[in-house]
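Mods, move this if it's the wrong board.
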Amino acid sequence: MNAHSLIKLFEQSPVVVPRKLFTDARRLDLSPVEFCLVVHLLELTGEGIEMPLPSELGERMNVAEHEARAVLLGLLQKELIAIDASADVERYSLLPLFEALEEETVTVKTPHALNENLIHTFEREFGTITPFEIEQIVGWLTEDGFSEELMLAALREAKLRNVRNFKYMDKILRVWQDHNVQSLEDVVEYQRRNK
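Not the wrong board. Structure tokens:
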């Protein structure tokens, strides 16, 4: 490579990565793959792509799509990235990460071990699911405390009623929550009482 080609390479639009991200990655419990994904999100945002698909991220990072999806889910669960739906389009927001970088001490949420098969089950029923829907699943697990078995039972219930959407599933889960339904046995008992 001659000097002219090398200069052209460095004249391309740079990706700006805050130094504090490098120095605080360990404190934030960022794995190398998570760090790489964050850098790619920064780079894609600079290109005007604010909501890349896991397949696009996987291709750029040279990992399988399911691995890129798992890394995204981990960052969502740790609350280091978020999905911003306030504009006309959904986009990944790195604001939680930048806020965590500002703080001297951060309590990073330990993610609930998300079973990749759970996401695949939802995709089989709904087709490709959006990042916003993935965040809904993560929220049901981490914020609302619903078990995977309860979520799958709600999915079966929605499927039986031929209403396959997340809003309906959320309604089922909320009703069960209001009636203290916490297990499959509770679901059976609740359905028996309410026939």
